Amino acid sequence: MEQNGAPFISEKPTIYPTLVVGVGGMGTNAVRAVKRRLRKAWGGETLPAMIQLLALDTEPLINRLDQEPLYADESAYMGKFDATRLVDNLENHPEIARWWDYPSIPLGYIHNGAKQLRPIGRLSFFRNYVTFKRLLETKYAALDKIRDLEMAQNRRFPVMSNYQLVYVVSSLCGGTGAGMFMDVAHRVRALVRSNARVVGIFFLPDVLEEEINSDLQRRRIKANAYAALKELNYFQETQQFQELYPSEQRALPDTPYAPFDFIFLVGRTNRDGRSLSRKSDAENLAAHLIQLTAISHLSSEILGLEVNVVRERMSGSVAAAEVVNDRRTGRPPAKGNYLVYSSFAASAIVAPDESLVNFWQQAFLADCMRRLAAGPELNDPRQPISPQTRQKVITAWQGLLARMRSRYLSLDNDRLEEMAEEVEEQRGAWLGFKTAVDETFRQVILDTGLRGALELADLLAPLNPSTAPNESLIKQRLFLLNNHPVMEEDRARWRSLLAQQGGAAEQIGQIAGGLGDLMLAAFNPRQARDRARDMRQRKARSRLHQRRDILERILVERLFAYGTQMRELFRSQIDYTGSALGRANHAARRAAERIDPRISDGTASTNTYYELETGAVGRDYLQHFYRNAAQVVYPSDWEVLLGPVIDRTLNFGRAVSGEELFANLTNAIATERGLLGRVLQCVDIRHIIGVQHGEETQQARPLPNNRVQQWLDRLNPYIRWDSDRFSFHDGNLEHIRLAATPSTREDDAQLAMAMVGQEDMKWIPTGDTGRMDAVWIVHGLPVTLIDRLDEFRAQYENKLDFPAREEFHLHPAWVDLPEITENDL
User: InterPro entries under this entry (predicted)?
Assistant: First the structure.
């Protein structure tokens, strides 16, 4: 879509109403993977009603802790019946009696899979057909609920309500999925008719082969796959399928339809020879394609281009869901090389927001502890304090001195003796001074760390008073006379004036002064009265100064003791912080290792298939992300996180243990939603690509861990075909190559430079800075060219291991359907 000539970037991806039906074990796992992806794209725990999921399996539903859970209304248990009794009473089950004729198949109680026997899978479908029908009709009806459409639109999701998708996902190899998919697909087509696009995604034997230990089972899954492809090819071409199901009044479909609009076949290895590592990768590959068409910025592009794809280019062929011959004539169409098959590869480079934010939390936790111990410098607190940090401490100390002096001067002169007792007993007047000291300690720890608080404690209580700096409390004092600390000369003058016992010289001076006063009173009474009044005032001042001096000395001694106590407290807290820091560093290393997993030879893994939490970054990027995220950490954040720890230390006078410190800060960071939200906004895939491209430019060579190149290099359809054996050219195939980018290549020079050589892709700007998806779809493959098809047929015809070929088919008569290998065309 364009707006004013420029590509329009939607904030939210487009939603197409989609029903996903997973059949069998792999189909069920694919449904789980689809649900996980769609929930992430939708942004909620539950999906909207226009997205419906249904898993069918003959094994009971069990949600393991490591799996995306499926709920009761999202699954149907197709087992739990006695197949032996059912077959023994076929007269009561005419719908099954029409096709069941497998005397040598072992039956028994069906409760844990179909034993890789396709007829048992189909038998289970018929036995539980009513359950399937009810769920199917309910889920299909929910796709166009008006209420949910409005809810999605209110959340700014564009919804294409007039275009519906139904996916049938299954393996062609086992018993349940391969035994049910044909009936499921035709029953779906009978319900939706031509009102929805029905797409099949089927897994070939090589996806499962590496995970099966039994050679006999490996041979059986190949034979099953050949029989399934043989049936699929025939009924897709002829639209001759029709079956009477339990509780139905007529055979379905009642009008000839091709079951699928598109049939995707998925193998383990792509055309470049790259192989998926596990079966689960193939399941996630299918889920990725479904998500790209159901909820993504690429969905409209993919589905719009597929409208123009010529799926069936044989003479006289027509589109799926249209009648191609009249069943009543019984004439099948001419045999031909039917070009209805497709394959694909989907790949994503995802900025692992959860993992990056988790790593940031662990690394930031370690920095919080460094900040607590050493302040903003974040270095070893045992190192000498820097001049800049010391100046901050001196400034805080001067402020504390001024505050304590002001408080000291404001003390009530009538309560000096009482307050002296309060200071000695650490109550009353003492608490005001302690509060001032604690508040200064708190601010100093926030500004300079515990190391700065130790410097402040040394000013309050020097280790060696004789060599204490001039700024310390014992040199500065709180009681000042004429802006100078009280000296011993001042104290001697007060004692002399108050006629207090002092030294011999003071006593002689006091006697002489008394005789002089007597003589003055005798000869000049007025002058004597003035002198007496002045003396009383001087004595009152001296007495007040003396009392204040006593209180100040008691207060300084108490502050000295408190400073000594706090110094030991801060040293203990630094030790505890060091132990917690070691634990935090270990947690950060583990978080980094989870982002960049290592393989056995110690090199960085490049296998990033379909892991939503990994793929775009490695450990080499983490330092860049952390520096980028540091810009959104504000001074108030440090105070919010460290303040409670500091307050607890100061209020209780006890160091917080390493375990408590680790737990408290971990919880504090995890609950700071505002901070975590800002860090999450720093996750930008463009920054990742820019960093990687910058490193390549700096080193003047491509790097092996360039995730952009890995992302596109592995993008090749996961099926192999041999066009040399048949008169078919790869140019006859229809290709769709799309890649989603956050912005246009013209607007992002680094993005354009990082993707030089990929000009054959169509780049779609999405505005999504969290991920970049790419898909390569190829349409028009003939089934005859599928790699290893002859090997599948060889096992299908292996009479030594499998004497009854009918047991590979869903109907014994279907063994006579046309073969699909090259020599039979």
Answer: Tubulin-like, Tubulin/FtsZ_GTPase_sf
Q: List the chain domain ranges.
A: 2-348+760-824
Distance CA 468, CA 449 (A): 22
Q: CA geometry: angle at 145 spanning 144 and 150, to 5°?
A: 105
pLDDT tens digit string along 692-726?
A: 777 777 776 666 666 677 777 778 899 888 766 66
d(CA 133, CA 283): 25
Q: What is the pLDDT of residues 71-82, one digit of tens each?
A: 999 999 999 999
Question: Which residues have C-beta within 8 Å of that of residue 767, sequence separation ≥ 6?
Answer: 9, 10, 11, 297, 742, 743
Cα 51 from Cα 290, distance rounded (Å): 11
Q: Which of 475, 468, 446, 441 is nearest to 456 (CA)?
A: 441
Taking a C-beta distance cutoff of 8 angstroms, is the pair 661, 645 a contact?
A: yes
- Residue 24: left (phi > 0), alpha (psi -120 to 50), or beta? left
pLDDT tens-digit map of 286-342: 999 999 999 998 998 898 887 666 444 443 344 444 433 444 344 444 444 456 799
Distant-in-sequence, close-in-space partners of 534: CB < 8 Å, separation ≥ 6: none
Report whether the peptide linkage leading into residue 525 is cis, meaning its omega lies within 30 degrees of zero.
no
Structure token pair of residue 762: 């169509």
Topology given in CATH for the domain delimited by 2-348+760-824: Rossmann fold (3.40.50)
CA dihedral 794, 795, 798, 804 (to 10 degrees): -120
Q: Which residues contact 70 (CB under 8 A, 6 or more apart)?
A: 28, 31, 32, 35, 53, 55, 61, 63
The CA distance from 238 to 232, in Å, is: 10
Q: How do residues 407-465 score in pLDDT, each as one tens digit?
A: 888 888 888 889 989 989 999 999 999 999 999 999 999 999 999 999 999 999 998 88
Sign of CA dihedral 363, 366, 372, 375: negative
Distance CA 688, CA 616 (A): 7
Beta strand residue intervals within 111-175, DSSP E: 165-171
Alpha helices in 461-524 (DSSP H): 473-476, 488-497, 504-523
758: nearest Cα among 719, 716, 717, 713: 713
Could you please report the per-residue DSSP string of 604-631? BP---TT-TTSSS--HHHHHHHHHHHGG
